[in-house]
Design a protein that fits this description.
The protein is mainly α and 336 residues long. It has a domain of 48 residues. The chain is elongated and about 70 Å long. The termini are far apart.
């Protein structure tokens, strides 16, 4: 008789033990993300689908599930999940970014543009959305893309991709000033990515093109007082590159430029990039910094020889660089 009474109790305990062993949504999400990192998107979808059944309103799970469908190239399924997320009151920038990826993938520019406009209206200080919108326009060969990247730089000055795209855009125009300035800001915000090497090459070529015609004021946009001041000083110190634009001559040119700039313009045009260059100059790191930017782009074997011969200086610079975060304040926007 006692055994019969104990049986239901044992079954309840077993049931509770089973429930206790069931992974929660957070654990399942981490498991799925491990599969995603391994490139096993199918298993990530299996795990996330189960997690969503347990917690169907969890926006983080839904975003991850949608993203894995995107990686799996199942765009219709992923879009069906992502699109409703943008209508939710707890939607974030990622929801719009994700949905935009699907519209790009299925080549629906109308809906994509409508989405980005709605997202920017909701998140007007998102550099991410301005960048994505600009990339969509650029893919359609619409030059108004630069307006989106510029706005992203103005309102969200520490988001690197707008600088990347703007620098590449200006490199294709006569206006090399902003390909130089935006390119150098980019390599400081994103110092060790595949895109960094590309922009270092662009920076070296931009300086060459800027000085190629002798008169650097020719064909440059000097409507901006900042640009006029920048070009005026560069013109005054241009003798530094009389024998060619190299990493060594650029170091001399840029040293003279910073010294002259802070004699004349620091109050009128406060600018974090130039402050950083002056700091490196004071700390004896400016030569290594210029070699880091231009050396490998100019001549990789020569750069390797230089970095070996100046090992202590180069190590001091790279250690300093890795130990700091380059950040730009708002309000230092001069592209107007």
């Amino acid at each position: 008789m006692n055994r019969i009474l104990l049986l239901p109790f044992i079954l309840v305990l077993a049931s509770l033990a089973t429930l206790a062993q069931q992974p929660d949504a957070k654990t399942l999400q981490e498991t799925a993300r491990t599969f995603t990192r391994q490139g096993d998107y199918a298993n990530a979808i299996v795990v996330l689908s189960g997690a969503v059944q347990k917690d169907p309103q969890n926006i983080e799970l839904l975003k991850d599930l949608s993203f894995n469908y995107y990686l799996q190239r199942e765009y219709a399924k992923g879009l069906n999940i992502a699109r409703p997320l943008t209508e939710r009151p707890d939607a974030d920038v990622q929801c719009y970014q994700m949905t935009g990826l699907f519209y790009k993938a299925i080549d629906d520019p109308k809906e994509c543009e409508r989405l980005y406009r709605a997202g920017i209206k909701r998140f007007p200080r998102s550099g991410v959305l301005y960048n994505e919108y600009g990339e969509m326009l650029w893919a359609r060969q619409d030059n108004s893309a630069i307006k989106q990247w510029e706005k992203g730089i103005e309102i969200d000055p520490n988001y690197s991709s707008n600088y990347y795209n703007a620098a590449r855009y200006y490199f294709l125009t006569y206006d090399k000033v902003w390909s130089i300035i935006y390119g150098e800001i980019f390599v400081n915000l994103e110092s060790y990515s595949k895109r960094t090497a590309e922009i270092k090459d662009l920076l070296l070529e931009s300086y060459k093109k800027l000085f190629a015609e002798g008169d650097i004021l020719k064909n440059q946009n000097t409507k901006s007082p900042f640009v006029a001041a920048y070009l005026g000083i560069l013109s005054n110190v241009s003798s530094a590159i009389a024998q060619g634009v190299t990493s060594e001559s650029l170091t001399v040119l840029r040293t003279k430029f910073i010294l002259a700039w802070f004699e004349k313009y620091p109050a009128g045009f406060p600018f974090r990039l130039f402050d950083y260059q002056r700091q490196l100059l004071k700390d004896g790191l400016f030569d290594a910094y210029n070699e880091w930017i231009f050396g490998a782009a100019e001549n990789l074997p020569a750069f390797q020889t230089w970095s070996t011969a100046h090992g202590d200086d180069y190590s001091r610079f790279t250690n300093f660089q890795k130990g700091r975060i380059f950040k730009l304040p708002e309000g230092q926007y001069y592209r107007f």
